[in-house]
Design brief:
16% strand; 11 helices; two-stranded antiparallel ribbon; TIM Barrel; eight-stranded parallel barrel
Length: 299
């Protein structure tokens, strides 16, 4: 799930990234067979869908991740943009699950959440995407952990037949929702559905608040269908100062990218890694793309 942060890549950081790419002639030997994705919402807002997808392609990405669209005309416009540019839409980020979680005690909220997922699955099928991202539940002061678990399982089971029919996987994502707080529980949760159409959408940055992404990657293994890339800086005294932990540019936070690279190699992950960062222009997006290259190269 996307977290916004206000940060501009400096000229120094851009030059250092370019230099690092140029100085790694053996990088191809260590490169992970992972494809590069970018959220469609990271492109300048004023552009048409065709212009957004063309920009993503021009700066070095292999595919985009879309977001739930209810308007049939918009759905068709994005589909046509994909066909015209040759830019694949590999996944859909469901947009209803946070405000209207499946774990809500309010039946009307659950109904809206289910409708959002059904629309997202239909979007994915229309665009040729094979996954939909779902935040399964939110634990808060009015929703107990056990209830969040039970309620979300019941609703996701209802979605599986549609996912199977459309051949689109429901991918459970880890976010700051106080739910699925260990890699073993996350694995157990996914396995409990006993369906190839329920998998994990693993976010390497989100997990740094309470774990180590390389550990989660090795535990989840083949359950991981898609991945989000972002970086995160957690001050050691953040709780004392009551500061909000900060998302930062890729390779500038606390994430141990070399260990993440090693873990992905060990589990044989070969699908998409999609960057989930702030919106920006072509220069900024090219820099992000270059940083993903360094990560995939093991730099």
């Amino acid at each position: 799930m996307q977290k916004r942060y206000d940060r501009t890549m400096t000229r120094r950081s851009l030059l250092s990234t370019t230099a690092a790419l140029a100085a790694t002639p053996l990088a191809a030997a260590n490169r992970l067979p992972i494809k590069k994705g970018v959220l469609v919402s990271m492109m300048p807002e004023k552009l048409t869908y065709r212009e957004k997808l063309q920009m993503a392609k021009d700066v070095g990405f292999d595919a985009v991740e879309g977001q739930t669209l209810e308007d049939p005309a918009e759905v068709d416009a994005l589909r046509k943009a994909s066909e015209q540019t040759g830019m694949k839409i590999h996944s859909v980020m469901n947009m209803a699950h946070w405000n209207y979680p499946l774990s809500s005690p309010d039946p009307s909220a659950v109904e809206r959440s289910m409708k959002g997922m059904e629309t997202s699955l239909e979007n994915a099928a229309a665009w040729g995407a094979d996954t939909v991202l779902l935040v399964p539940a939110v634990v808060n002061d009015t929703v107990r952990y056990a209830d969040a678990y039970a309620r979300s399982v019941v609703q996701i089971k209802k979605l599986i037949p549609k996912a199977e029919k459309l051949k689109v996987k429901i991918c459970i994502e880890n976010v700051w929702n106080k739910f699925l707080l260990s890699p073993m529980e996350f694995a157990q949760y996914v396995d409990g559905f006993q369906s190839p159409y329920v998998a994990a959408y693993f976010d390497v940055g989100n997990i740094l608040l309470y774990g180590y992404p390389q550990d989660w990657i090795r535990t989840l293994g083949k359950r991981i269908a898609k991945v989000h890339f972002k970086d995160f800086k957690n001050q050691s005294n953040a709780l004392i100062k009551k500061r909000v932990p900060e998302f930062v540019d890729l390779r500038e936070g606390d994430l141990n990218w070399k260990e993440v690279h090693k873990a992905f190699g060990e589990i044989g992950y070969q699908s998409y890694a999609t960057v989930e960062l702030q919106r920006g222009d072509a220069k900024y997006l090219r820099e992000v793309s270059n940083r993903v290259d360094l990560i995939l190269n093991g730099e």
